[in-house]
Sequence to fold (671 residues):
Amino acid sequence: MIYYVSADTVRSGSGTRENPFQTISEAAKIACAGDEIIVSPGIYRESVNPANGGTDDAHRIIYRSEIPLAAVITGAEEIKSWNHYKENVWVIRIPNGIFGSYNPYTTVIAGDWYHSTDPMHTGEVYLNGKSMYEAFSLEEVMHPDIDPRSWDPAFTVYKWYTVQDRNTTLIYANFHGADPNQECVEINVRRTCFYPEQTGRNYITLSGFTVKQAATNWAPPTAYQEGMVGPHWSKGWIIEDCDISDSKCSGISLGKYLQPENDNKWTRRFLKNGTQTESEVICRAVNEGWTKERIGSHIVRRCHIHDCGQTGIVGHMGGAFSVIEDNHIHHINNKQDLAGAEIGGIKMHAAIDVIIRRNHFHHCTRGLWLDWQAQGTRVSANLFHDNVPPEGTKIRSGLALGEDIFVEVSHGPTLIDNNLLLSTCAGRLSTQGLAFVHNLIAGSFTWVGEGTDNDAIELAFSRLTPYHVPHSTKIAGFMTFLHGDARFYNNIFIQQDTRPDLIAFAKDRNCDTLDRFNFICGTKPYDGYPTPEEYFAKFTAESTVDYRQGDIFYEHLPVYTGGNVYFNGARPFDNEKNYISDTEHKISLHLTTEKDGCRLQTNLYDFLPEFDTPFVCTEMLGEAFEPEQKFEEPDGSPIVFCQDYFGKKRGIRPLAGPFASGDETENILFQ
Fold:
């Protein structure tokens, strides 16, 4: 059955082409497996709650914009009845009945790992599509100051403030000379835009929509994780060719269902540490049916995801076994009015067997954050750049500076191959079980060997995290972190000039060593880690029988290397093998943005040496130590790294880095 929807119809009909529904929600109430909903161009100010799902991939429910991006689902309402208050400030009185059971202007953002102290609301005010900045007094609206924390400081003087007057919401806003009754001024009034209230609405496709401006709340892994769009603990969704923007917190959620006993338990009861509550959340989900057969296996592809406050895509457990590909993800958390440990272009916990490939991440507080259980996760052929604060920004983060990729407290195997990591900080590696293969890395590694305990003052309190039966959600065990168990093969490391303001930021925090705010590009932070030969030679029948020798089990795990190339002062670690360090030539890197896409301008391939680089494959990489799982495909088949960033075949003596040949730098990296 095909249903038709048109916002322009005078009166809602029966859903035929000749007599369409007026809202998408009408179709969503009755659509069943195998049905398709065709939505005409227009603005749909509604929150779509699909009542049903499909039964399998061949019998899904498809929601399709008739013209790509011309059907707009928005959580906002346009307001034209502003009254002039004083000077550049206007005021609007809104009856609270318009909000129903959820008023974004009384709902304060809160949750586990949320660090902001200001009482931010989930509501927002938009001037011509651009979100303004919330103030916390009328005086601040009347006389606004520039906020130097924002990545767009000039716009921070566009302030709004809200207060309650009995059953009315008042909003004061400074439009700096603009008349809000002549401009497009909107306020978000709905919590979500396309999101089922019930779990288990499987096999739904959302194709070609513009979705924007929802009043979502903070989405930590130990809470109900809402997003402007998302499957809500279901299986087999496809979100494709959409433009998703301006969610107060998260754009797409592939995350966790509501566990009432565990919902923000840490900040509600203040008793158990976040690590312990997180472990309880995971075990409860397994007990309640978190399996590959029921949850996950989503596809997010070819979407433009931008200008969200917390994350572009968030997900704990519910995104397992998914594919996230060919998306453009940028300008996430740039307002810097939200702060906490759940921020990034993508922030995923338990990304088991998730493939993240051919995406473009830039101008995010951090590009990609894989937290806990990045087991079987593959990050391949992505372009990362400018994922640290811009020069001149007042840096507020207590979570390092931001970086291209952050992998945290995971036992792996986590595979990072054929990527361009061009930000000042390429990776924060508070983890083990990694493999970096054929990447171009122009930033540093930070927090190597750090960040895997709970900062206990007296008694030891390590962050014990789970690992799983390979390609499954079944828990195989819990273990703390020894660090290492890392592989670096056929990468190119290029040291960039480090900005003085970033060095000053690190010095202010007394970080003079290579562990935390490190700006030396290369594997240098792994100095002192053993080679495989050194590490495994200690384990003999004699040494392991004597329990007094037990300390040998709790030392750094080995680091495996070969085929890496270092330029501009980038440095290998002290046990590195089979590498070349070029101290003679100066390599330039410059990413240009043109009408048809991004290109890399570099002289790298004038000087890149050809030498005895290994041909990397699954068997060569071996097993991640703790889960005893190989770096392999989600179906268990082996990987041979014979294809480069563009899919071109490599020769039997492959060049280091993501390109099979130097002439590929002339190609468009992302369109």
Notes: Residues 1-73+196-203 form one domain. Residues 506 and 517 are 6 Å apart (CA to CA).
